[in-house]
Amino acid sequence: MSLSEKVARDPAADDGAPEPGGTGTGRSSRLRSLSSGPYLMVLPLVLFAAVVFLYPIVDMAISTLVVTDPDTGGRSISWESFQRVVADDYAREMIFRTLRVGVLTTLLTLVLAYPVTLWMRELTPRWRGVLVTILLSPLLMSIVVRTLGWVVLLGPGGFINDSLERIGLGPVSFLYTEGAIVFGLAQVLLGFMVLALLTTVLQIPDTVVAAGANLGARPWRVLWHIVVPMTRPGILAGAAIVFPLSASAYVTPALLGGSHNPVMATEVYTQAIVQLEFDRAAAMALVLFALVTIGVALLGVLGRNRAESA
């Protein structure tokens, strides 16, 4: 082939087009392999989640819902275990307490994390990374040791009560209250909320904030009408992380709430391990799972509706 023939050749042939008379199956197979590559990479994670997460939940649901008649041996679906949980005043109070702790912890972490992320926006990447490491450092410590630190701090002879007694305001019973549970969980989960907010705060253009100020808006109006709407995805993402973790926490409510403030997670442990009431424990665990799933789904719907209306 001469040089002029090479130049006049159809460029599509160099892009992988099949030669005349060819079938093109090689290129199509390569495209199929590239399109299925991401699914194959996610497959191990899906299998792992199915084995260690979905299967136990489905098995627990089947063992709770399906009952066997001792006389005939027939099987039927029964909602009796769930009806007993819903009809019990003690269980209903635990459900409301669990939701209350989850919502209050989410709100507290949001209130604490928002100004921190706005401040981190002004830092250099180096100092921003240092601060993120400090905020996530509680996760490097055992949750039992971390929670026992709160027990010492909030106890009758702790630092807070000693300080209040010196100024004539103490002692105050902080330990074994819902407030102690909320503060203990907020200290652990604050880093997750900061990370979720930081991703959206860093995406706010400086020109947008400056434009609001140049038009005469006060700082709080710029914050409320410009910054907060632009960081709403981060707020919802942080809430979707903090709420499930706080509503299903066990160690912190057990140590800081005591026996007078049980939540769903601690009651599931008591019913299954202490009282050996496996049916009631499974029913309460499924109720907790349903409540957390509904909460996360509502946050997802809220975020999707906001995105569509924007």
Topology, please?
Blueprint: H1 3-7, H2 25-65, E1 66-68, E2 75-77, H3 80-87, H4 89-120, H5 125-136, H6 143-154, H7 159-166, H8 178-201, H9 206-214, H10 219-230, H11 232-247, H12 251-257, H13 264-274, H14 278-309
Antiparallel strand pairs: 1-2
Helix pairs in contact: 2-14, 3-14, 4-8, 4-11, 6-12, 8-11, 8-12, 9-10, 11-14, 13-14
User: Structural class of the secondary elements?
Assistant: mainly alpha
Helical content band = over 70%
Tally of separate domains: 2
Tally the helices.
14
Unreliable spans are 2-19
Q: Helix and strand succession?
A: HHEEHHHHHHHHHHHH
* Strand coverage percent: under 5%
**Which term fits the overall shape?**
globular
Stated plainly, the CATH topology of the largest domain is called: MetI-like fold
Average pLDDT across residues? 82
CATH evolutionary superfamily of the largest domain: MetI-like
**Widest β-sheet, arrangement of strands:** 1-2
CATH class categorisation of the largest domain: Mainly Alpha
Number of strands: 2
Features:
globular; single chain; about 75% helix; two-stranded antiparallel ribbon; 14 helices; about 300 residues; MetI-like fold; disordered N terminus; mainly alpha; 2 domains
In short:
This protein has 310 residues and is mainly α. It is 74% helix and 2% strand.
Descriptive account of the structure:
This protein is an all-alpha fold and 310 residues long. The protein has 2 domains: 22-77, no CATH class; 88-309, MetI-like fold (Orthogonal Bundle). The chain contains 14 helices and 2 strands, in the order ααββαααααααααααα. The protein has helices spanning 3-7, 25-65, 80-87, 89-120, 125-136, 143-154, 159-166, 178-201, 206-214, 219-230, 232-247, 251-257, 264-274, 278-309; strands spanning 66-68, 75-77. Strands 1-2 form a two-stranded antiparallel ribbon. Strand 1 and strand 2 form a beta hairpin. Helix 2 crosses helix 14 (278-309) and helix 11 packs antiparallel against helix 14. The protein is globular. Residues 2-19 have low confidence and may be disordered.
